[in-house]
Amino acid sequence: MTGRFSQRQLAGEVAMLLVGCVLYALSVVLFIDPIHVIPGSVTGIAVVVKALFGTPIGVLNLIINVPLLLVAVFYLGKKLLVYTGITILLTSLLMDWWAVLPPFTEDMLLASVFGGVVMGIGLGLILKAGGTTGGTTVVGRLVVRKLPNLPIGTILMIGDFIIISAGTLLLRDWDLFLYSTIDLYVCVVAIDKVMYGFDVKSAMAIHTSQAAAVAGRLQAEIPCRVVRFQDGLVCYCKKSNVSKVQRAVQVEDPEAVCGSVNMDYSFGGVDRPE
Predict the structure, then answer these.
(1) How far apart are CA 154 and CA 189, in angstroms?
(2) What does each C-alpha distance from 148 to 107, 120, 134, 245 come to in angstroms?
(3) Which of 12, 87, 184, 222 has the fewest CB atoms within 10 Å, i.e. the most exposed one?
(4) Dist. CA 22–CA 174, nearest whole Å
């Protein structure tokens, strides 16, 4: 039974990863690259470099991400290495392969909004499956292990905003900065909605002496929010993820005690029940 469950879970994660890669690549090819909007992360750097020198986005994406991936594996584990390796390779190949496709729209506002939506959904699926696209998403995973109270979308927004600002200065186009900021905001909202859902209806009180380690594992493996207290933590998640939270807690601290309380909760608010 456990073996069949693990195989189903693996198949689901791989399928989610592949769909996410396709959506991510399409967002760049059909919306982002044609109008030179800077999406942030390594892809944003690649878009800027292509605009300046004509270097293929996929090639740059692959080259820049390899060192980051090697660093991340020491902190985030082999599973993330495999999933991220697949993601980087597949998205890089697809972006260069589909580069001949015509843009979906040449309207900068529409391209910024819908590019952000498609990219955010793709990134959310990749992150939810347990992978990253490299770049700031790797950094986001690392930061979340240390600061589990922060939603990963917020971390990505900070890093990507820095990249967008630098890219705008190089391209000397302030309209591009505004459109890129719109794209980034829409993308981050879409990521958080895919990762965490619109409503979270379960809160789990976890009493553990290994609060930091448990919080890090939960935030890295399960779409949830974690708030730490002196004698433990509270984990906000979907009802369907309660059993996953319990298993992850027991792996990290077999002596931990979990208790679940049902409530209506939206991630649009603060990190506490209303």
Answers:
(1) 9
(2) 38, 21, 19, 14
(3) 12
(4) 30
